[in-house]
Design goal:
By secondary structure, the protein is α/β, with parallel strands linked by helices. The chain folds into two domains: 119 residues, no CATH class; 120 residues, no CATH class. It is built from twelve helices and six strands. The strands form two sheets. It has a four-stranded mixed beta sheet. Strands 1-2 form a two-stranded parallel sheet. This is DUF3025 domain-containing protein. It comes from Herminiimonas contaminans. Pfam families: DUF3025. InterPro entries: DUF3025 (IPR021390).
Length: 264
């Protein structure tokens, strides 16, 4: 299978750290989707109905069935040969519990609003789940004061004045696959939807795969309690400390990117 589209990925980028190891291996495979399914089987990935997760051609998705309903009913994830679906697959391998919970939220809403084989009208829960799936950034920190400043868009305070505090008390894990796709060609205004995980960071010496597994479990449990767009806060990806060069005070004072919070 031709996977030349994967050659544009710069795996050294810090935001790809969570998916780098498996991504590099899949990108080197003769057939990345075949290798993807081998790994899914090896990990025994299953959906909320305990059906094995398998990645299948997009053509398998019936025209009258919603994408999320198909995954729920069959365990099959329609997958195209492009960056968007490649990154989506990497997230399934890295944060499977979150992906299963998001699919469950979507499937419940579809079943609530329409018959199982119809495309349901979207609602607030489905919109929030889609935003999470496509664009979420998982930010782990027990520093409530610093997280409040982040929610208030106090960018200079968080990333300049208290930068060392942010680096000590916070850890950022990129989740959204559409966000990963955008960052293949990074630009300053790319912004994620931050989901703040109010826990102390995993130990820095804990292997990254174990950190991701811990985050996966915690966030899946949080999502099981509900999800709305009010849970999100914006975060400019190239503003994360260490994710871009020349992050001086002037960098964060660019109000076309690091915008002040709107007043009600």
């Amino acid at each position: 299978m031709n996977a030349s589209f994967l050659s544009v990925i710069d795996w050294s980028r810090p935001w790809l750290s969570c998916v780098r190891a498996v991504g590099v291996e899949l990108a080197r495979a003769d057939n990345w989707q075949r290798e993807l399914n081998r790994r899914a089987t090896e990990l025994d990935l299953r959906n909320h109905r305990d059906l094995p997760i398998r990645f299948v051609p997009q053509a398998e998705l019936p025209a009258d069935r919603a994408y999320e309903a198909h995954i729920s009913q069959t365990g099959h994830v329609p997958t195209r040969d492009n960056l968007h679906d490649f990154f989506n697959a990497l997230v399934w391998l890295t944060f499977p519990q979150i992906k299963v919970q998001l699919n469950l939220l979507q499937a419940r809403e579809i079943e609530r609003n329409a018959s199982a084989n119809a495309v349901a009208p979207r609602g607030k829960v489905r919109d929030a789940a889609t935003i999470f799936d496509e664009n979420a950034v998982l930010l782990v920190s027990a520093n409530n004061d610093l997280m409040h400043a982040l929610r208030e868009h106090a960018w200079e305070e968080v990333f300049v004045t208290r930068r060392a505090e942010f680096e000590r008390d916070s850890r950022v894990y990129l989740f959204g696959h559409a966000l990963m796709e955008k960052l293949v060609q990074p630009y300053k205004a790319i912004t994620g939807h931050t989901w703040i995980v109010a826990y102390a960071c995993p130990p820095a010496d804990l292997p990254l795969a174990e950190q991701c597994a811990w985050v996966d479990q915690i966030v899946a449990q949080q999502l099981a309690q509900g999800l709305t767009t009010a849970n999100f806060s914006p975060l400019q990806m190239l503003g994360v400390p260490g994710w871009w060069p020349d992050q001086d005070r002037d960098f964060y004072c660019d109000t076309t990117v690091f915008r002040p919070k709107r007043k009600n």
